[in-house]
Structures are given as C-alpha cells and as structure tokens.
Amino acid sequence: MRDPYEVLGLAKSASAAEVKSAFRKLAKKFHPDQSKESRAKERFAEIGSAYEILGDEKKRAAFDRGEIDADGREVMRGFAGGQPFGGGFQAGRGSAAFEDVDLSEILGEMFAGRGQRGGFNAGPQRGADVRAVLDIDVEDAIKGGRRRISFSDGRTIDVTIPKGATEGQVLRLKGQGAPGRAGAGDALIEIAIRPHPVFRREGENLVMDLPVSVPDAVLGAKIEAPTPEGPVTLTVPKGSNSGSTLRLKGRGLPGAHGRGDLLARLVVTLPEAKDAELERFAESWRKSRPYTPKRRP
Fold it and tell me: What is the greatest pairwise CA distance in the chain?
C-alpha cells in the first residue's frame, strides 16, 4: 500500500486531530454507496488502511520508526529488503481503522444511525421522501377523485384522492420520492381543501346562506338548495326569519367520526327591482301594525 501520509494527504507533522479530520473528509467523499468517483471502493479501503496506521498512536509511532510497513506488518530487521510478516488491514472485516470513529457522525445525515464502532455496516441507502401539498375542492374531499401534481424536478404524478379525504391528511405514494441505491423514497402528499364559493367550513360542518323570498318566508315553501352532491329540496317553515337554520344531516365534510352536517342559514331577500305594490303594502302595514324587531344575539 502507498504511504498512509500520502493517502490521507498529510505531512508527517500532522496532529491527531488533523489525521482524524482528513479521514472524515475522505471517507465522505469516497464512500462507495454515495460516491460517483471512479475506483471509490478501492480508495475507501485504502483510506481505511491508512487511518488504521495513523489513527492509532502506537502504530503511527511504530510506522514512523520503521518498525511496521504501510500495511501494518512488522518489518524483520537483518534481512535484505526487510522481509515483512504478519497481517494488515482488510476492507470489509470490521477493521480497527474504525474502532474509535463513529461513522454515523462522520457521514452525517447520509448514514445516520448506520455507523457502528468497530465496523461500518451501512448498506445501500433508500432515496429521500419528497413532500407536496395538493389543493382539492370540497366535492373532491367528499366524493374522491383524481388530480395531477407536479414536483420541482419536473415529474408529474396522478394522485387518487380517496372518498372522505380530510384536511391535513397525508397520502403516501410508495416509490415516488427521490431515487436511491436501495430504491426510491416515497411521495407524501398533504391534502388541503380550497375555500368554496358557496359553502363555508366550520369544523366538519358546511355552512351556506340560502336566500328566501318574503312570501316564502311568511307563508312557508319548498325551495331548492345546493349541496356538494347536487341540489335537494328543503322545507322552509311559515314565519321564517333571516338567520333561521335548516340542518341537513350528514351532508357536510368527512371527519374522524363520519360526515358533518350542512347548515342552511336563511336570508330573507327583497326583490331586486322596486315593486310599487309591495311598497304600498309595507306602508299600510307600518301604519297599522308597527313593531320593533328584537336584536338577535
């Protein structure tokens, strides 16, 4: 093997801290599960062998005195060429090169939890998960649907929205995340329900304002009202006032315990065009039957 100082790019005067720092930097660069460098596997093994010598105070001193060679084998004196014997570092067998180094610390988040003292057992890494927010309509949340979402890397994915989707729910799409040597990560799609032009959200209930004519409010009537699943017929009781609420059970948003309700708040509404007959009637009523409406809480 090459001189360990040369392998780690160090001078012989390098401190122990400088040796460790150089090893950490090179281990990151040439780890075969992450590196795109040519001969990364061989370089990683060579770096480990060098650190086995220079990272151990006694072995480093022995190497500097010429008592062991770059492979850590003892040099027999008195023979031509100094014939060596003994064993050295072999990559992949839990070498002492890593004995006092926490590789999870060295390689950071790339290999968090994988490094082990006395050896390095990190296998190929799975790709990272990616996250996105998908805005859907109230109708999609109730009935389900299919929408296309785009990621920053240019990919598009068709997402199936399940019936009963809820605000903040996360859909996990297996294998649609970032690529990795051990397979792609997942795509985590968070559901966000858009504001609706008709229905307001109050928890799991939906609330809407339902215009009612003066005659229908006074006399009662059956009128058509919208719901997320299509129009239905509601009965307006006689003498209904603005603010009166009609409740449609189970027509609201999906929730943890089923669907909420749809609340139709009546708004008694005058005709848009002026009506002379209605004005005469109101004038006569005001004179003969004056009253002061009670303030609603």
Answer: 133
What are the DSSP E strand ranges found in 200-282?
200-202, 205-213, 221-225, 232-236, 245-248, 254-255, 258-259, 262-269
User: What confidence tens digit (pLDDT) does each residue in 246-282 have?
Assistant: 999 999 988 877 889 999 999 999 988 888 998 998 8
**Rounded-to-10 torsion of CA 105, 107, 111, 116:** -50
**pLDDT for 198:** 93
The two tokens of residue 172 are 């996990």
Asked if 62 and 53 touch (Cβ cutoff 8 Å), the reply is no
Distance of alpha carbon 69 from alpha carbon 62, whole angstroms: 9
pLDDT at 121 over 70: no
Handedness of CA 178, 184, 190, 191 (dihedral sign): positive
pLDDT category, 236, cuts 50, 70, 90?
Answer: very high
Listed range (93-102, 235-244, 246-255, 274-283) with the worst mean pLDDT: 93-102
What's the whole-model pTM score? 0.49
How far, in Å, CA of 200 to CA of 206, rounded? 6
In whole angstroms, what is the distance from residue 115 CA to residue 128 CA?
Answer: 19
CA dihedral 196, 246, 268, 235 (to 10 degrees): 120
